[in-house]
Amino acid sequence: MIELRDVTKTFPQGKGEGGGLRAVDHVSLHVPRGSVYGIVGHSGAGKSTLLRLINHLEEPTSGSVLVGGADLGALGERGRRQVRQSIGMVFQQFNLFRSRTVLGNVAYPLKVAGASRAEARERAAEVLRFVGLDGHARRYPEQLSGGQRQRVGIARALATSPGVLLCDEATSALDPQTTHEVLALLERVNRELGITIVLITHEMDVVRSLCDRVAVMADGKVVESGGVYEVFSRPQHPTTEAFVRSALHDRPDGPALERLRARHGGRLVTVPVTGDAAGGHELSRLLREHAVDFTVAHAGVGEVQNRPLGSVTLELRGAEADIDAVVARLGGLEKAGAR
Ligand SMILES: Nc1ncnc2c1ncn2[C@@H]1O[C@H](COP(=O)(O)OP(=O)(O)OP(=O)(O)O)[C@@H](O)[C@H]1O
Ligand SMILES: [Mg+2]
Predict the structure, then answer these.
(1) Which of 172, 216, 232, 295 is the 20 to 30 A CA-CA neighbour of 225?
(2) Which one, of 271, 281, 280, 267, lies nearest residue 319 by Cα?
């Protein structure tokens, strides 16, 4: 649905000559039709620039951007406008017109696209029903809560029936409960309307609850990408690792680990838990074989894409030699606190 081929975007930096700032650095990625694709990265990583390249709010310095098979760079102004109309965009700060009603805001892109007043109002009312705001059509944005404003933002983006929805930190200004509601709405947009979603966030929890695939950006580059479960269970890049830990909260470290050590006199080991049942059987067999007993010191196991993922930290008790043997056999499994 969306394909970036070796895309670079350099901004002239202003101060000093030469170089310029490479906000997006040789990025290639493919967003399959119907998927929810997350892009995470720290502030300044180039996420918003990447998103703006997809709907051609920014021109790539080099490389090409294809949406629905059409190469935006090769299209004329008219063709580009058409492609842009097939892409909806949702912003962190909602970007609604304060002087227009909810209905007026949602009808606006339809009018721009040439719909009659009656058509625009009818379609706007329909999308407002979809986002659950049909009772609020005559209100003004400032009479709404943040979550309701964002639903208006989503309704406006959906008005022209786009095939793609781009969301730039759509939930970053919202509290956790409201975030949850907006994510549930985006999930319906994807599932019921079949719209492909590209979503930028700095919260891995958002990726975990909504996305199929994820790309991690650092310094303008995509440093890692893949299926959400795969990336969560086997992060390769340090940036990814840090993001994954922040969402899984699965292993104690720092002061929490010190407290565990104070509470538990025995040997602590942290064992990953995945959807792989064989791993669990292997562990219990190993403990039985060596007559090593255990207590759960810390458990951080949750679900990612409906599959278990996380780790448990166990205190092992038994003869030293037996514990040594178990720890040796655990092999690739890490000791508590190891990262
Ligand atoms: N129009 C512009 N002109 C010059 N530099 C820009 C422009 N837009 C972005 N940049 C720079 O490009 C880099 C990437 O910015 P971008 O907004 O894409 O990051 P981001 O990952 O979205 O960050 P955040 O999480 O803070 O929104 C930053 O260093 C930024 O200052
Ligand atoms: Mg940004």
Answers:
(1) 172
(2) 267
